[in-house]
Amino acid sequence: xxxxxxxxxxxxxxxxxxxxxxxxxxxxxxxxxxxxxxxxxxxxxxxxxxxxxxxxxxxxxxxxxxxxxxxxxxxxxxxxxxxxxxxxxxxxxxxxxxxxxxxxxxxxxxxxxxxxxxxxxxxxxxxxxxxxxxxxxxxxxxxxxxxxxxxxxxxxxxxxxxxxxxxxxxxxxxxxxxxxxxxxxxxxxxxxxxxxxxxxxxxxxxxxxxxxxxxxxxxxxxxxxxxxxxxxxxxxxxxxxxxxxxxxxxxxxxxxxxxxxxxxxxxxxxxxxxxxxxxxxxxxxxxxxxxxxxxxxxxxxxxxxxxxxxxxxxxxxxxxxxxxxxxxxxxxxxxxxxxxxxxxxxxxxxxxxxxxxxxxxxxxxxxxxxxxxxxxxxxxxxxxxxxxxxxxxxxxxxxxxxxxxxxxxxxxxxxxxxxxxxxxxxxxxxxxxxxxxxxxxxxxxxxxxxxxx
Length: 453
Ligand code: GLN
What we know:
Blueprint: H1 3-21, E1 24-27, H2 29-44, E2 55-59, H3 86-94, E3 97-102, H4 136-143, E4 149-154, H5 160-166, E5 169-172, E6 192-197, H6 200-210, H7 228-231, E7 240-244, H8 254-268, E8 273-277, H9 285-300, H10 319-330, H11 333-346, H12 352-375, E9 378-382, H13 398-403, H14 409-414, E10 418-426, E11 429-437, H15 442-452
Parallel strand pairs: 2-3, 7-8, 7-9
Antiparallel strand pairs: 1-3, 4-6, 5-6, 5-10, 9-11, 10-11
Helix pairs in contact: 1-2, 4-5, 6-15, 9-11, 9-12
This protein binds glutamine.
């Protein structure tokens, strides 16, 4: 069948099913069909690139030329970028078809997708439950077969945690592997784009398109890019798996724990060895993250001032009123909370006590991982503390929502790659196995995910 037929198939599914999930903010049906037509012509002329004509979707944090890019916020509800993010450009160049933009927590701040200005996303496995966040739209859309794959971003777990809660595969690459140019910044030293798809094979194809060296992002690294698909079939013989004892403590649902333990055990049958390790500073990851991420967000979000672009309040009395009201009316509660926390942490009298301290803890966390990688190749554990929880059960208590990120934030603080692989069900809801590897080992993560699946 043609790309036009395939694209139409997904557009029809989105139209029929997405009212129940709310996983898309914008569906670009006409543009998608035009892209599909162009892809069919390229294929007819012999283009055999694997993504040519394949439909996919972008998280609404990636700027798309001529298509609204809201970042889940009222602040950018009227923002139509005049350019594409490098990631979007990479997919366009290969002839992929974009179905539209997926829903997300406002400015990617959240773990439940309930902070979106466009309303919560519902988990396709049980629509009374959250899909996780912040890339919940991408994960839910893939899980509900509304798109074969989607781009996403991960600052403290936003690819891996929704992938876990929606029963799909999500890869957070090494910091610097994927260009952040045109990806709306939340916390610049932690943000990284990556794919969500149904399995490792599809993630490998997505990752091949996303990974690139980009001079326009000064933190993007010029490091050789592996052939991810070629690595999928490598046998796991001799793989050394570390399981941190800190990952199985208080707060982890016991059924999730036994599902994860059984999944890890299965790698033994594929020739891997399992060893208990320690990441002594893991419990400090959430506190350090929730100082560093808000600090960086308070600086990044200062650009939304009602002047340059985005929301502007009505009839401002003067410039100060314009700033104040545009920001008070344009940002949601969670975003405001983070700006306040971040501004406080960076202020003159408190900088050393909070920000500087958090940066020191960050180094200790990274050192824990480096010590562990002296002994083992990869680290395995749960992605999330539980399966998908009920909508509305956490969004009234920010601290308990932050604690949900206990397994994912350390990876970002260290800049390491991590993956969440579907590994079973508890009471009919999916569970994700998280695997963390050393820098630039995306290929290894995809390989072991493929062998497991
Ligand atoms: N849940 C985390 C937060 O709220 C992570 C979000 C993310 O990775 N974008 O900050």
